[in-house]
Amino acid sequence: MSEPVRDTGGSSTLTDDTKSGDEVSAQTYDGMSLAELAKHYQLRPSAARPGMFAYGRQLWERRHFIMGFATARNVAMYTEARLGQLWQVLTPLLNAAVYYLIFGLILNTSRGVPKFLPFLITGIFIFNFTQRAFITTSRVITDSLPLIRALPFPRGCLPIGYVMIELQQLVMSMVILTAIVLATGQPLTWYWLLAIPALGLQSMFNAGMGLFLARLGAGADDFGQLMPFLVRTWMYTSGVMFSIETISSLKNHPTIVYLLQINPAAVYISLVRNSILLTQRQSWRGSAPYNNQLCVQYYKAAENTHSPTSQLLLSAHCHGPISIDQLWLWGVGWAVLALVVGYVFFWQAETRYGRG
Amino acid sequence: MVNPTVVVDDLHVVYKVYGAGGDKGTAATALMRVVKRQRRPSVREVHAIRGVSFVVNHGDAIGIIGRNGSGKSTLLQAIAGLLPPERGCVYTSGQAALLGVNAALLDDLTGERNIVLGCLAMGMSKQEVKDNYQSVVDFSGVDPAFINYPMRTYSTGMAQRLRFSIASAKSHEILMIDEALATGDANFRAKSHDKIMELRGEAGTVFLVAHNLAEVEASCNRVIWLEKGKIMREGEDVPAIIDAYLEATGGVPRKRDTVAENDHTS
Fold it and tell me: Which residues on A lie below 8 Å from B3 (Cβ)?
């Protein structure tokens, strides 16, 4: 039996619509074609795609499943370890320890940023949320094929669930981050509350992109393989380990600095930094009246590795590529854009994910 | 009285299989394929269902028989809307559901969490999960002391009993039962057989895929014999079709079918 194998290759078939009902069937039943019969008794196609808004309603009805699925995955991740759930806290803590060792003790560099260590660890943790969400959602359909072929549920539950898994991990990381930031001498202020809407927007962005990437990854596994490299490149252009504005080679290219600063990862990282790090707010370019002399003084200080914080805070007197208010607008814009595009793009292929 | 609940109209189902072999699988051969602009031979599309049509009425119990790889499970998945049709269409009066939640469960989780997860995956609300939880535990017969242990620590029989209990916690309008679900010791087999009967009573329409032909003959009023993705014979004369099937397959039907529905045996 070799007949049923059609060698039509491995290209993505997720883009062509399934043809249904456009062929007149040969069989009749009580004088009606089968399609007419089904219509007469108000039967509906089993693989029919719900309407765009009905789909959103279905996802909302499955919210307990999404959260249950996310929690279950997180719990299952550490059951083999002797320390168990403690790893949810230990993993980010050890991550922070590694960066402290390299950047705090070995390199001991400020790179023109006042209080570099909390700046760095905030960047790492916030970027990690988006990074993990991107990598896991681009593989979610391939990884969950047995589940998709066994149970009916809106498939959007899967990428959203994966983003929720990472969000739960992020909450643990934020607890550690709070401790680190306070330990490095940053004060606890009302500004901290702004981290919540910032992370909310980032979660929306991740969920939208997760839906988008899940469909892309469903067509070709190669995409899932490529994703870690794309994301790592993105990390190096998003000001995770340095401040975008202090790159000396970009000093005379304000447009490039602006473009780097409005990329979604840099936006969300900056928003969280601005809410929990006082020194970041104080040193934000353009937050103080422009003063050429003080700005030049800052650039001199930034050249040295051991400049005092007070000198590095003078960057506030330089021209800034973007204000904090504008940053919030970009944050909202990216989140809404990703969510709308991702949702529609994923929904369009809803019935075809079972094909593999 | 005609009251169709499932109409299958010239259904064709195609799905992809990865790693089907065909080249040496080295990086060099893969590179040559890219250079020559050939497609990857190890990704194959299997045309599993090729033009199947039938109508099922309310109250019908349909037995589906056929050899390994004849497309029985694929047909059920297509009726449930899990695999999209390549051509043709399946119309149903409601959501058709396969009995089984194995794919949603995680062995690393405790039995308790798996019950909740499995029930949520089947579409129960939080309240329904709460209401059903105790009856699932009771039915499975899993020792209450074990319910807080990860499922991977369960014996095979115990895990199978729990999986069956979770899967059978919800009743469906169109129920599809694939293969022998009744497993475990003799006592549980009898219990699960009764449970399946109960679910079938609640369901308006039942599909049964089984290799136990006596079971099909005893409980189905219609039978569909699939062969290479097409209907060989179909009708209400169950014993005659089963006899013909037995004759065609050499008299002795296989006892077990495996998950690999599309291994090419013939």
Answer: 41
Highest-pLDDT range among A106-110, A123-127, B165-169: A123-127
Counting residues of chain A whose pLDDT is more than 70, the rounded percentage is 89
Is residue B178 assigned to a domain?
yes
CA distance B91 to chain A (A): 4
Task: Indicate whether B27 belongs to any domain.
Answer: yes
Question: Is residue B232 less than 8 Å (CB to CB) from chain A?
Answer: no
DSSP SS3 for B93 = coil
Per-residue confidence (pLDDT) for residue B262, from 0 to 100: 41
pLDDT (0 to 100) of residue B252: 58
- pLDDT for B266 equals 34
From chain B residues 168-227, the ones with a CB under 8 A of any chain A CB are: none
CA angle A66, A70, A71 (to 5 degrees): 120
Q: Does residue B192 sit within a domain?
A: yes
Nearest alpha carbon to residue B231 among A34, A38, A48, A27 = A27
pLDDT of amino acid B109: 86
- What DSSP state is assigned to residue B149? S
The pTM score is 0.83
Residues in B 120-149 with any Cβ partner in A closer than 8 A = 120-123, 125-126
Q: What is the pLDDT of residue A63?
A: 93
CB B14 within 8 A of CB B86: yes
Does residue B180 contact residue B254 with C-beta atoms inside 8 Å? Answer: no
Name residues 27-46 of chain A within 8 A of B (Cβ): 27, 29-30, 33-35, 37-38, 41-46
Q: Which residues contact A270 (CB under 8 A, 6 or more apart)?
A: A239, A261, A280, A327
How many domains is chain B partitioned into structurally? 1
Residue B258 lies inside a defined structural domain of this protein: no
Contact check, Cβ <8 Å, A44/B92: yes
The CB density around residue B158, as the number of other CB atoms within 10 Å, is 20
| pLDDT given at position B191 | 80
Chain A residue with Cα closest to B96:
A46
Choose the weakest-confidence range: A205-214, B17-26, B120-129: B17-26
φ/ψ region of B7 (left if φ > 0, alpha if ψ in -120 to 50, else beta) reads beta
Give the structural domain span for B45.
4-99+172-248
Binned at pLDDT 50, 70 and 90, residue A5 comes out as very low
One-letter amino acid of A42: Q
The enclosing domain of B28 has a CATH number of 3.40.50.300
Number of neighbours of residue A27 by Cβ within 10 angstroms: 13
Q: What local confidence, expressed as pLDDT, does residue A341 receive?
A: 97
